[in-house]
Write a structure and sequence with these properties.
The protein is mainly alpha-helical. Helices cover 58% and strands 0% of the residues. It is elongated and about 45 Å long.
Length: 69
Amino acid sequence: PGVSMFMQLPCEVDAITAFEQMKNVAHFLAKELNGQVRDDAQTRLTEQTTEHYRDRIRQFQRTLLLEQA
Protein backbone atom coordinates (compact mmCIF):
# COMPACT_ATOMS: atom_id res chain seq x y z
CA PRO A 1 0.00 0.00 0.00
CA GLY A 2 1.13 3.52 -0.63
CA VAL A 3 0.29 7.03 -1.67
CA SER A 4 1.74 8.56 -4.83
CA MET A 5 2.26 12.29 -5.18
CA PHE A 6 3.25 14.13 -8.30
CA MET A 7 3.15 17.58 -9.82
CA GLN A 8 2.71 18.59 -13.42
CA LEU A 9 4.74 21.33 -15.05
CA PRO A 10 4.12 24.03 -15.92
CA CYS A 11 1.90 24.94 -13.01
CA GLU A 12 -0.01 28.07 -12.01
CA VAL A 13 2.23 28.86 -9.04
CA ASP A 14 5.99 28.97 -8.54
CA ALA A 15 7.13 25.42 -9.31
CA ILE A 16 9.86 25.27 -6.67
CA THR A 17 7.43 26.46 -4.01
CA ALA A 18 4.86 23.89 -5.15
CA PHE A 19 7.50 21.16 -5.02
CA GLU A 20 8.57 22.16 -1.51
CA GLN A 21 4.97 22.14 -0.32
CA MET A 22 4.38 18.73 -1.89
CA LYS A 23 7.56 17.38 -0.27
CA ASN A 24 6.50 18.75 3.12
CA VAL A 25 3.07 17.13 2.82
CA ALA A 26 4.70 13.83 1.82
CA HIS A 27 6.94 13.92 4.90
CA PHE A 28 3.97 14.83 7.12
CA LEU A 29 1.91 11.93 5.74
CA ALA A 30 4.83 9.53 6.12
CA LYS A 31 5.25 10.55 9.75
CA GLU A 32 1.53 10.31 10.54
CA LEU A 33 1.12 6.98 8.74
CA ASN A 34 4.41 5.51 9.94
CA GLY A 35 5.63 5.28 6.37
CA GLN A 36 8.52 6.38 4.20
CA VAL A 37 9.00 8.97 1.49
CA ARG A 38 10.43 7.35 -1.61
CA ASP A 39 11.59 8.69 -4.95
CA ASP A 40 10.68 7.65 -8.47
CA ALA A 41 13.12 4.72 -8.23
CA GLN A 42 11.38 3.50 -5.06
CA THR A 43 14.39 4.27 -2.85
CA ARG A 44 14.30 6.48 0.21
CA LEU A 45 14.16 10.15 -0.73
CA THR A 46 17.50 11.76 0.11
CA GLU A 47 18.53 15.39 0.16
CA GLN A 48 20.67 14.69 -2.91
CA THR A 49 17.66 13.35 -4.83
CA THR A 50 15.56 16.27 -3.62
CA GLU A 51 18.16 18.71 -4.97
CA HIS A 52 18.20 16.79 -8.25
CA TYR A 53 14.43 17.28 -8.52
CA ARG A 54 14.84 21.01 -7.83
CA ASP A 55 17.46 21.18 -10.58
CA ARG A 56 15.11 19.42 -13.00
CA ILE A 57 12.37 21.93 -12.20
CA ARG A 58 14.74 24.86 -12.74
CA GLN A 59 15.92 23.38 -16.05
CA PHE A 60 12.31 22.94 -17.18
CA GLN A 61 11.57 26.56 -16.29
CA ARG A 62 14.64 27.79 -18.22
CA THR A 63 13.65 25.72 -21.26
CA LEU A 64 10.12 27.05 -21.12
CA LEU A 65 11.37 30.65 -20.95
CA LEU A 66 13.65 30.11 -23.95
CA GLU A 67 10.79 28.63 -25.96
CA GLN A 68 8.59 31.62 -25.15
CA ALA A 69 11.27 34.15 -26.18
